[in-house]
Amino acid sequence: MSHLAAVMATVLLTVSATVSGATPLEHGRTLAEQGDAARGIVACAGCHRADGGGDEALGAARLAGLEPAYLATQIERFRAGQRSHPVMSPWAERLEPADITAVSAYYGALAPASNARAPSDVDAVAGRALAETGDWSGRDLPACVRCHGPGGTGAGTVFPPLAGQPYSYLLAQLEAWAAGRRHGEPMALMGAVAGRLDADEQRALAAYFATRPLAVADPVDDLPDPAPAPAPAPVTASASTPATAVAGADAAVPEHLGSVPAGRAEAASRFTPPGRDALPEGPFGEMVRLGARLFRHTNTDPRSASHVGNDQTCAGCHLDNGRRADASPMWAAWVAYPAYRGKNQRVDTMAERIQGCFRYSMNAQDSASGQVPETNSVVIDALQTYIYWLATGAPTGDTAMSGRGYPRLQPPAEGFDRTRGAALYAEHCALCHGAEGEGLLVEGEVVFPPLWGPRSYNWGAGMHRVDTAAAFIAANMPLLDTVRLTPQEAWDVAAYINAHERPQDPRFDGSVERTAARFHTSPFDLYGEPLGDGGAVLGQGTTAD
């Protein structure tokens, strides 16, 4: 008899019937701890342990502290045959709806616990890159934390915690998704992810998340942790040693100069920014690292958060932390500035362009400081340094780099339709961004940004224009290519999103009509249009409570 079968036999012999008249939570506890022998329902604790932290030997999942709605959904998937397990499948079939609600609520109310251990022969660190940054350019594969929240601690009712899940359970699920034995998740997301991982990557990811803490006090940065600095070796000038190699107090060589680690491999190829492991050393590298952090955690890092008046980050519009082609990559922006911008009818430097993002996309007017970062502030310096580094080897002045901005869409012959867009949004977008466009945050960190309402970009941001939003959506949304919207669908979704109120345009002069006439004359701009609730004119603005 196997270990699992022995555990089940023991549990069935010792459980007692549920106490009648118990509250739902008490009923859930009884099912979890004792089961219900009369109905052949074994106790959950027999496999998942008394603390709900899972079991490596049995491959049993951690349940403690997970969202009740998520747990209930998984039980229903066992009942529907979308998941299969020799114990869980018959167990789920014996439950009544009230049982499912009760046991899910019980485990959701428990303090998070984990009994996970990664095998000593699997390198957990090897899974970090895929987990935290993904492989967008190689396999169109977003980071795991892009959906599952900072550190894999979970996000909402759809994306469960990965942190602290037993290694054996995580690996079994990745293998099941890849083989098509587990299915039913929205938009077939996990099947697509698992199918793009080889066996070593699956093991490394399972080990990485099994060893992660259940709560993340400080989210992981976009760039890897710096390696310990080696002890400096003495250098002596000689006939074979360039004089510049001898670092003196008055003639130090800047550490970021030297061979170019990135660039165009051939004329027809797209530019490739430096790899995340090619970070320069010394003070320059430290500033690059800070800029990468501010780019990803703009709304939470104390150095930049005081200038952010909503729940947006730089990485929300510039995917893969500013690296992804066709998602307005920063390497293409750096070489195109300074540039004249019709929006403010002047030549902007890169610093001023970044300040514009704070003013409009991150709604600095409603921030703690009420203003954008100063031109010579550490925030602007760090972001510029990071963007400059991403453009290492890019041709200065090339304003037509392949992958720059968002690929423009031709205006649709049918126009755009908000009603069609509403249905498409409910089907493809609400899963992540919420039915009311509210987005999703975990411990203040933006997982999915708000798309309208008081925490969204304001009426002056470029994304409020239907053509800009449609171009971004067509090229980049949803994140995985299991679903690809047609250009017409992208226009319709963009029109629906941008026909909702959001924070006021900072250029507002007290009159929507005058502000619309001065700054919102594009046919793709809905500001000032009578398209709001009950026919109200859009552009009234909205502020957080």
Mean pLDDT across all amino acids? 88
| Uncertain stretches of 5 or more adjacent residues | 1-19, 229-268
Main sheet attributes: strand count, strand direction, barrel closure: 2 strands, antiparallel
Class based on secondary structure composition and strand pairing = mainly alpha
- The number of helical elements comes to 24
**Percent range of helical residues:** 25-40%
Structure in a nutshell:
The protein is mostly helical. It contains 24 helices and four strands. The model is unreliable at 1-19 and 229-268 (pLDDT under 50).
Description:
Strand 3 and strand 4 (about 445-450) form a beta hairpin. It contains 24 helices and four strands. The chain is an all-alpha fold and about 550 residues long. Residues about 1-20 and about 230-270 have low confidence and may be disordered. Helix 10 (about 165-180) packs antiparallel against helix 12. Helix content is about 35%, strand content about 0%. A two-stranded antiparallel ribbon has the order 1-2. A two-stranded antiparallel sheet has the order 3-4. It has helices at about 5-15, 25-35, 45-50, 70-80, 90-95, 95-110, 130, 135-140, 145-150, 165-180, 190-195, 200-210, 280-295, 300-305, 315, 320, 330-335, 350-360, 380-390, 420-430, 430-435, 465-475, 485-495, 510-520; strands at about 340, 345-350, 440, 445-450. The termini are far apart.
